Amino acid sequence: MKYYCIGIKGTGMSTLAQILSDLGNTVSGYDDAKGHKFTQDGLEERNIPIYYGHDHDIDKDTIVTYSVAFTADHPEMKRVRKLGLTIKKYNELMGDVIDMFKTIGVSGTHGKTSTSSMIRKILEDSIGCNYFIGAGDGHASKDNEYFVVESDEFNRHFTAYHPTYSIITNIEAEHMEIYKDVDDIRDTFEIFANQTKDFVIANGDNEEVRKINYKSKVYFYGFNDNNDIIIKDMELGEDGSKFRVEFNNEDLGEFFIPLYGKHMVMNAASAIVMCKLIGISLDSIRESLKNFKNAKRRFAVENYNGSIIVDDYAHHPTEIKVTLEGVRQKYPNKRLVVVFAPNTYSRTRDFTNEFIEAFKIADKTYLTEIDCNREDPKDYPGITSSIITDKLDGGEIISVDTMNKLANEKDSVVCFMGCAYVDSLINAYKEVIK
Prior knowledge:
Elements: E1 2-6, H1 11-22, E2 26-30, H2 41-45, E3 50-51, E4 62-66, H3 75-82, E5 86-89, H4 90-98, E6 102-107, H5 112-124, E7 130-133, E8 137-139, E9 146-150, E10 165-168, H6 182-194, E11 199-203, H7 207-211, E12 217-222, E13 229-237, E14 240-247, E15 250-257, H8 262-277, H9 282-290, E16 300-304, E17 307-312, H10 317-330, E18 336-340, H11 345-350, H12 352-359, E19 364-367, H13 386-389, E20 396-397, E21 413-417, H14 423-433
Parallel strand pairs: 1-2, 1-4, 2-3, 4-5, 6-9, 6-10, 7-9, 10-11, 11-12, 12-13, 17-21, 18-19, 18-21, 19-20
Antiparallel strand pairs: 7-8, 13-14, 14-15, 16-17
């Protein structure tokens, strides 16, 4: 088969393109962004062509899929319709692909990528697996039995998936430009949960997760004693996190992850029991987690010219809060500086107060101006980054051109955050301290 992916550098689309290629299909794609993005590394490794113009040929038997960031009036969308090509939403196409395997669907407002990556690591070290992870990573082989798929609630994408097993890491308000309220979000997660063929592993400490009316078998996990999977004896240290797991009154023993924060322990507990239930030995799970390295842009630490730089994908207040708490765990005696790149007007508006509270964990916070390619600022009058920085003690606006504001932060931990690409900000900071 031949596939053409519009928006091929997006995290989800890049991953799908890689998977389609691995399964023996001919794949190419289009993107507006000509600059390098980390998501294109896997595409280039597979020699998948990326086009930036609108004059290249596309065979008539090609199936087109597209990112939701590309509206119907985009020139490339208009062109493929004019050519009469078959067009399919990317999540529907992904649903078709994963139905060929035993699928582990990992969902949740936060923690999907890290949890998916842990399961992937455990399975790769033991029996092998296919994976679709939203950090630009994807791989598939027809020889593998299992497929680990990050199942995203954005635009209700994961309702196209029918996993064999699933995980729900948490549910809270997010993507309020799409959902009416938290009830609407939970109802959509309920659809996903009840499309699971075998069992669900769900965060029992999360109130909204508990409200779901499960039709599939469910195992709840968390710190509370009313869960099936209980985390005990947690120790958060500068080298990582140590904890024990009890499952249905059976002590599974002690585990260590070189990761930081209570939320990462929660993610690991769900991954441990998922892999145990599909037949992976506890010793194998333990060893894999001990050597686990998180996905791209998840607490990625770089030491540059004596300065500690953290690059993290966090963009929701809860994600920012737990990431900064993790930085405090790893570097308890360091000054903590945040550079955050907000990427939607709606999220900035809907969670202004929550952002402010999350950033109070840091010693100093900078925000770039909002840069959004899917929302029109005219629809959000008065919504700028300043509505957050003005209410923070010492909060400031920053840009690539004003990065010299960080000239005296060489001895600090500087944490660059946002789901938008922050490479240009990091590179500018490196120039300042070089």
